[in-house]
Amino acid sequence: GENVEQHPSTLSVQEGDSAVIKCTYSDSASNYFPWYKQELGKRPQLIIDIRSNVGEKKDQRIAVTLNKTAKHFSLHITETQPEDSAVYFCAASKDYGGSQGNLIFGKGTKLSVKP
Amino acid sequence: DTGVSQNPRHKITKRGQNVTFRCDPISEHNRLYWYRQTLGQGPEFLTYFQNEAQLEKSRLLSDRFSAERPKGSFSTLEIQRTEQGDSAMYLCASSTGTLSGNTIYFGEGSWLTVV
Hints:
heterodimer; A: mainly beta; six-stranded mixed sheet; five-stranded antiparallel sheet; 11 strands; B: mainly beta; four-stranded antiparallel sheet; about 0% helix; about 50% strand
């Protein structure tokens, strides 16, 4: 089955710096890669996702890149702010037609943005 | 609020007791998922429904766990003879499951503490 590895497990940056979180996946059939942000005690919230027919997607300060050949994808946050501090999870799934699409998650990265 | 709704939000129970959690998905979503999350870990897939049909169960879902979605709307997750290892947050999620995409939205979770 699918296995998702996420690095680093913790990341501390100064406000205004960029943060990069990387994930690798094992199942070459996976084609949907979302990123979730989870604050302490709260639900995981989707912040950006990418499907395997594109290599990069950007939404304001957040971008995701995908390298299908190497089976890895990354989250990039620019101009970090203290409110970006949270745990970020990457995930992968096979998402086509009638497939189940259940997500397999990485173990998470705790991002701390210092003012 | 038209998001995924879960209740109760918190449950403390004695070992050996049965507990039941309820999930109301986003109204137009026909897929419903249950995940379990322990501290410091990513959500782990338990099971999912397409309408009222339970289409996949993880091996994490022991025979003490049962999930139902009788009318294809709300779902219940029952844990019988609870054990301390069952202490976790139980997350429900839903999605449209359409060909155009399968973005999964999570509820706030139900925290279970088994004492």
